[in-house]
Amino acid sequence: MPSLRLLHLFSLSATSNLPPILHKTSKVYNKLAAFRSLSTIYNSGHRKEARFSISIAISQSQTPSISVGSVKMGSVGSHGAVSYQSVVVMRHGERFDNLEPSWAATAARPWDPPLAEPGRQRALETGRRLRESLGFPIRRVFVSPFLRCLQTAVVLVQSLAAVEEGGGSTGDGVSVEPSEVKMSVEYGLCEMVNSKAIRPNVAPKDGNLRFDIAECESMLPAEIVDKNVERVYKEFPRWGETELQAGERYKHLIKDLADKYPTQNLLLITHGEGVKVAVSSLRKDAEINQVQYCGYVELRRPIFNKDQAFTFGEFDLLTPSDKTGVSYSLPPFHDSTNQTFP
Q1: Where are the membrane-spanning stretches (predicted)?
Q2: Most CB atoms closer than 10 Å: which of 4, 123, 226, 256?
């Protein structure tokens, strides 16, 4: 039976001058449409098994709903059947060059550092936390082409698909089912392409960061990469975009991806600025204080399906400040109706 291997978790070709710990890989095997991890995660010595469940939940309006397929189905009203789509927007884990500043001096791609070991550990922990708390399945994962984001995505999906030793439930949430999840690289989720986000001393002189989709996809598990996806951004953004332009890029991309897949819940792995925009687009008077590594927010909106035609409600920001590694403050008497994407 074919195996599902986490290919190039820490790519040798992209990080040839890294310490040995960053060259280790993990294996995950596909069995009867389930997902069983038969490998150890580094030296833990524990086996992880996938678990899959259906989560029953109560919406904010107290209408009972059940997770069927991808989104939570609710009642049928004048606008048709209503379901709820969730989008989780997350920052990558710790980057290696922040821990080893000398790494960039000899790196082939100093503007594209890999994930550090603390970042890998944080991604594992975040995956476990999501698995226990989300309450809905993730069906599509979109990733920035930067190496630290690709590596965060691989570790996170592996963690989402696992249970604790002994096979017992670790919470009431829903785990990712890798036999059904699809992962894609999206240029629009990339870092701000300017000297504020990419240090001038490491940026290429011609401004060409040289990202190749096929090369990025080779870092991901081959069996879950969606090679047929139509990307929102066909090309990598040009060097020199302003902070405002990057903000508009993130804002429109979140909505465009959600609109393309209205019956699926999404996980977007991006950079700190992308998470900030996810908050500020819905809380326009919010002051974002901090986005920690692997910090994330959850957005949710109603989807109305009448006669096979979808209409979309407004997104709402469900994540309170300081609960998931994202800290923001609101002025007194905040108007919570000020929530919309373009």
Answers
A1: none
A2: 123
Nearest to 278 by CA among 149, 89, 140: 89
| CA max distance for the chain | 63
CB-based burial label for 296 (10 Å; 0-12, 13-18, 19+): buried
Token pair listed for 187: 């240029």
CB count, 10 Å around CB of 148?
A: 26
The string over 9-44, giving b where at least 16 C-beta atoms fall within 10 Å of a residue's C-beta and e elsewhere, is bbbeebbeebeeebeeebebebeeeebbbebebeee
Give 53-67 pLDDT, tens digit per residue: 222 232 333 333 333
Helix 117-133 / helix 147-160 crossing angle, nearest 10 deg: 40
Which has the minimum average pLDDT: 1-5, 37-41, 199-203? 37-41
Beta carbons within 10 angstroms of residue 184's beta carbon = 22
Contact 253, 188 (CB under 8 A): yes
For the chain, the residue count is 342
The SS3 of residue 71 is strand
Number of Cβ within 10 Å of residue 251's Cβ equals: 18
pTM score, two decimals?
0.76
Q: Which helix (H) or strand (E) holds 103?
A: none
pLDDT digits (tens, 9 = 90+) for 109-167: 999 999 999 999 999 999 999 988 988 889 999 999 999 999 999 999 989 887 444 34
Q: Which CATH class is domain 4-329?
A: alpha beta
Looking at residue 323, its amino acid is K
